[in-house]
Amino acid sequence: MSNLRHLKLILLFKLAHFVLDEEMVKLFWDSLMHKNSKTASELFVEACKAILARVDNLPDKRSREIAREAFTWAIENYDRITVHSATKLARYGHMPNMVAFTNLIDGIERQSQAWGKSVKIIKHDRQTQFETSLAFVHELYANADPTPIEWPGMRKYSLQMANGSKFIVSNRSESPGIQLVDIVLWLFSRMNSGGDLLEHSHRFMEYTLRKGYYNDFSFGGVYNNLEKEMRPIMEAPFSEEQLARAKEMIERSEERRRAGIYQPDMHQVVAARFYPKNQAR
Predict the structure, then answer these.
(1) Among 25, 46, 141, 212, whose CB has the most other CB atoms within 10 angstroms?
(2) Would you report the helix, strand and coil content of the chain in percent, each value rounded to 5?
(3) Which residue has the higher pLDDT, 67 or 226?
(4) CA proximity to 177, closest of 123, 103, 128, 105
């Protein structure tokens, strides 16, 4: 059942804790960011080989089996894996700033649906290095095909968000809204670092967190969310009938996993939604 998001995350945590080191991570990052496609593939294979050499450090047999099979396949079929990005715009898509911006658009869309109001303008603080990339990502999501995507083990969702909205950048000095966001982020950072807040600041942040929500995609944040979702399942009693059904599901999932190696993947499905047939690429 390694195709389920929760189990993917568990395997990721195992790899991060028992296998990965800084050198491997740098190799993989360099493969993503390299301008030359041949060099990018070579670095990717080198990173996979380094990881494969330490797969036996994983604490359980099943994790070792899945990881060994996956990285062996990746090394032998590296040309079927898209690692290289031809443009700076695409390479910037891997940066933390861009990941955060994608989460931001998702939050704006959810709030838009909760209020039953469309998004007119998204105003972002000026970041010269990323402005073109931010505008590009906004355009992708705002104009994506709204057809919902259904994927095993994941909720149904649409890639189209903030449809019809306009994206603009502004200096902090020109936007009270951006200044307010900066204040919230500074106070939130101070709270997370264990710093004390004055009474009014503490009350302000209590109100902010009560009325809003945030997406913590750090290792700690992902782990806490995973534990919150999985613990009731792991601790719940189950019958022999449920156990038999679970084993059957595992067998079917394993068949799909092996067959799925040679089938169109999620990236192709997503690409089709981002670039509808009636939209120029």
Answers:
(1) 141
(2) 65, 5, 30
(3) 67
(4) 123
CA distances from 199 to 202, 203, 204, 206 (A): 5, 6, 9, 11
Q: In sequence order, which residues have a C-beta less than 8 Å from that of residue 209 and are 6 or more positions away?
A: none
| Tokens standing for residue 156 | 């149904």
Output the CA torsion sign for 64, 70, 73, 75: negative
Model confidence band, residue 269 (pLDDT cutoffs 50, 70, 90): low
69 neighbors 183 (Cβ within 8 angstroms): no
More confident residue, 149 or 26: 26
Rounded CA-CA distance 197/208 in Å is 14
Helix ranges (DSSP H) in 116-218: 131-142, 176-192, 199-211
Determine the distance from the C-alpha atom of residue 9 to the mean position of all C-alpha atoms in its chain, rounded to a whole number: 11
pLDDT at 239: 85
Residue bearing the bigger pLDDT, 181 or 225: 181
Q: Rounded to whole angstroms, how far apart are CA atoms 148 and 156?
A: 6
CB atoms within 10 A of CB 19: 20
Average pLDDT, rounded, for the chain:
85
Please name which of 92, 77, 74, 96 lies closest in space to residue 33, comparing C-alpha atoms.
92
pLDDT category of residue 195 using cuts at 50, 70 and 90: confident
168 and 124 Cβ atoms separated by less than 8 Å: yes
Phi, psi of 35 (to 5 degrees): -75, -30
- Please give the average per-residue pLDDT across 145-156, as a whole number: 76
Integer Cα distance of 160 and 146 in angstroms: 5
Q: Spell out the domain ranges in the chain.
A: 1-84, 88-170
CA 146 – CA 155 distance, rounded (Å): 15
